[in-house]
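Quick log. Single chain, no ligands specified.
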Amino acid sequence: MARIEPLPKPRTETGEVITPGEGERPRLISGEEYPIFPGDALLRVRSTVVVAARCLIRTDGTVSNCTMVCSDPAFDEIVLQNLQTRRYTPFLFRGRPMDVTYTFPFAIYPPSTAIRPAATF
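-> predicted structure:
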């Protein structure tokens, strides 16, 4: 019978274990929070589309090494371009800035249908 091993706990470069919730999360300080998608791509959306990219937020606040982990070809490039323009405060662990891997999810919703007034008789 196969044995399931637990995932390794995240550690600092010195081997200290980082527990969930420990440390100060990065905050967006510049760049657009939401990508702007072209209208023609949005018009093809029939149900909610979710895309996500896993990136490294460096101690200088830049975003790099992005990889799409949930992908849609119509939106991937725009998401990646948006993430590269962002700048964050660094992740702080016990007061020290550290590089951190972060997953950025995006939900793209279909355009709302036009609301028509009820027919009058």
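Confidence is low (pLDDT under 50) at residues 113-121.
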